Amino acid sequence: MPEKIKVLLVDDDEDDYIITRDIISDIPASNYQLEWTSSFDEALTIIHQWNHDVYLIDYRLGAHDGLELIAKAIESGSMAPFILLTGQSDRETDEKAMRIGASDYLVKGTFTPFDLERSVRYSIEHAKSLAEIQKLNSELEQRVKVRTQELAEAVIKLEETNKSLFEAQQEIKKALQKEKELNELKSRFVTIASHEFRTPLSTVLSSASLIGKYKLTEDDEKRQKHVSRIKSAVSNLTGILNDFLSLSRIEEGKIYNVPTTFALEPFAAGIVEEMQGYIKVGQHIQYQHQGQPDQVTLDKQLLKNITLNLLSNASKYSGEGKTIYFTTNITPERITMQVQDEGIGIPEADQTHLFTLFFRAQNATNYEGTGLGLNIVKRYVDIMNGTLHYQSVLNKGTTFTVDFPRNPSL
Q1: For residue 8, is pLDDT > 50?
Q2: Residue ranges of the Response regulatory domain (predicted)?
Q3: Does residue 410 surpass a pLDDT of 50?
Q4: Which CATH architecture has domain 5-111?
Q5: Which long-range contacts link 143-149 to residues 24+ away (Cβ below 8 Å)?
């Protein structure tokens, strides 16, 4: 049986506690453990014990208010989500709550068991996503400390040797440049992660709120529309997190080339089938295998990641109704995979920076993305001892070609 979700209600009105308790008990398959306190100071003490999964905070708390409680709790390090309960729908209060760190707000006397369950569930998921970002940020900070220590050790080593002054200066400059680059990487990571997470999370919250308003059978089409928006936003969030996690593993040297022997054609056809649920309306992936019998020896998972990324990009940067041409080819010496689209193309001035970390072409700024995908693809191809080439014409399309030696020992 799943572990109960522990909820703390902070409200100075016992009647409101009883109402909230009854609403929670009406949630289907209710799996909640509700506790209550009416004291501002006692609430802070309990929150600092980190024993609850989510907090329901009343806006009015005697001489204090719920916004003050949320601000103090977050300032002291609380990571669990806070949901503000207000007496009336007030945009200004809503904006204040979001600015100080509340995950959501509900209007007392109007929300249903469905509304409360939805708010708790999405607030907890939102908190998990933010915790993951902070974890990755902490790992980057640790790597900065390691690089700083390496710099200190390099200076000590230089002092203990008979290197010339010029050589010592060059060594220090290189170490300082690495330090600068890593700090810039950390800063850009935090900025991009915060920006890219904000849009899909807002989509999830707004669509989830609107779903609760469509209660009639004839509203089913509207509900399904917002369910699709939520699924798309969650998929986007998952892709962003996967990109950041993949980059982190590559930087730490935890990605290895582990070749296995498998049939290339059904492998590629399976990926095409998997992509059907993600491409745009009317788009079509035209797959063709050429050449010799299709047994190959490659790292299957890395090849799948490369293929999915290139096909996803081809769909993203092409319009509805366009065709994506996907080809695999085997010769006695080489294994080649090619993805060609009819999309927006890459400006010639941007092509030399295409595989640079976090780089986005000038004509791609209106498309979702972190600028990590092609950098990760290039690194995966390098790990597999392959080569990656591309050709692109602005407003006509782009072709990516991945090439591997047939015999890995060559």
Answers
A1: yes
A2: 6-123
A3: no
A4: 3-Layer(aba) Sandwich (3.40)
A5: 143/182, 143/251, 144/179, 144/182, 144/183, 144/186, 147/175, 147/178, 147/179, 147/182, 148/179
Report the alpha-carbon distance of residue 254 to residue 73 in Å, rounded: 37
Q: Are 49 and 73 contacting, i.e. CB atoms less than 8 angstroms apart?
A: no
Instruction: Tell me how long the chain is.
Output: 410
Instruction: Give me 168's structure tokens.
Output: 């010592």
Strands 334-340 and 323-330: antiparallel
DSSP bridge pairs for 403: 336, 387
Residues 6+ apart with CB under 8 A from 135: none
pLDDT digits (tens, 9 = 90+) for 134-157: 777 777 778 888 888 887 777 777
H/E stretch holding 98 = helix 91-100
The pTM of this model reads 0.50
Do β-strands 64-65 and 60-61 pair in parallel, antiparallel, or remain unpaired? antiparallel
Sequence-ordered alpha helix ranges (H) in 252-299: 264-275
Neighbour count for residue 44 (Cβ, 10 Å): 16
Distance between CA atoms of 356 and 378, rounded to whole angstroms? 10
Percentage of the chain beyond pLDDT 70 is 79
Domain 260-405 class? alpha beta
Q: Using 50, 70 and 90 to split pLDDT, how confident is the model at 126?
A: confident
pLDDT tens per residue across span 363-387: 777 777 667 788 889 999 999 999 9
Beta-strand runs (E) in 95-169? 104-107
| Burial 131-149, CB ≥16 within 10 A → b, else e | ebbeebeeebeebeeebee
Q: Supply the DSSP string of 188-245, one letter for each residue.
A: HHHHHHHHHHHHHHHHHHHHHHHHTT--SGGGHHHHHHHHHHHHHHHHHHHHHHHHHH
How large is the angle between the packed helices 220-251 and 113-159, nearest 10 degrees? 10
Q: d(Cα 27, Cα 13) in Å, to the nearest integer?
A: 22
Domain ranges of the chain: 5-111, 119-251, 260-405
Which residue is it, tokens 């928006």? 229
Element (H, E) at 354: none
